[in-house]
Write a structure and sequence with these properties.
Radius of gyration: 29 Å
Order of helices and strands: EEEEHEEEEEEEEEEHHHHEE
Helix content: 25-40%
Number of domains: 3
Largest sheet: 3 strands, antiparallel
Strand content: 15-25%
């Protein structure tokens, strides 16, 4: 993308007006790099967005991202900087001793770290941030139920009139349950985000696959 004056996006093949009210033609993008620079036009290389399933980030509004963090795997109490009874921020020095913010000299705050504590809502309840692990376990359960529902008719027929469930269907239903259990155990065992991401099914250019999640057995014809 291209920015004019570091704030306004301009697009190739589309005219634009500068701060002096001068209109420029749609083919402005054929200008030389030197001329573009003289017009305060610069090309911005857009950052690759992280995978939103696993990460949070802040968008700077002009195609850049920063402060990329992993999402929580498990529920955790939301944290906030601790305060004393007068509402003063509490910090910790290198010896882990508490120091009030008002007592820290200007420019010395880099020598201290914020003391954190559980954040509570207006009713005094600890606010919990949800992790993504439980939701993926629920996805496995939901997909398992949906897949099995396609052959529930065979189980119902057996119950109603005693006709045996076809071997292929019985074998497949067992395989679905086995795979679901393996998926749930793998999700539960992931110790960090790297291990968690490695569980997802990925195909390489040679057709080889890695990962376990949502790679369900198929019912033979």
């Amino acid at each position: 993308m291209f920015l004019y004056n570091k704030t306004t996006e301009i697009k190739p093949n589309k005219g634009w007006t500068d701060v002096n009210g001068i209109q420029h033609p749609p083919n402005w993008n054929i200008w030389s790099d030197v001329h573009k620079a003289s017009m305060n036009i610069e090309e911005i290389i857009l950052d690759t967005r992280p995978d939103g399933r696993f990460h949070n980030w802040i968008d700077n509004g002009i195609g850049g991202v920063f402060n990329i963090t992993d999402k929580l795997l498990d529920d955790a109490n939301r944290q906030a900087q601790a305060k004393d009874s007068d509402g003063e921020d509490i910090w910790l020095d290198k010896d882990n001793k508490e120091v009030l913010g008002k007592d820290i000299k200007v420019g010395e705050n880099k020598n201290y770290t914020a003391k954190m504590e559980d954040y509570k809502d207006a009713e005094g309840n600890v606010v919990v941030k949800k992790g993504i692990r439980p939701s993926y376990i629920q996805q496995v359960k939901k997909q398992q139920a949906s897949l099995l529902s396609h052959t529930d008719w065979a189980v119902v027929r057996k119950t109603d009139i005693g006709v045996a469930v076809p071997t292929k269907i019985a074998t497949w239903r067992t395989a679905i349950r086995t795979k679901a259990t393996a998926m749930e155990e793998a999700i539960a065992a992931a110790s960090n985000m790297t291990a968690f991401k490695a569980l997802f099914l990925v195909w390489d250019i040679d057709g080889n696959k890695t990962g376990i999640l949502f790679d369900w057995p198929e019912l033979e014809e």
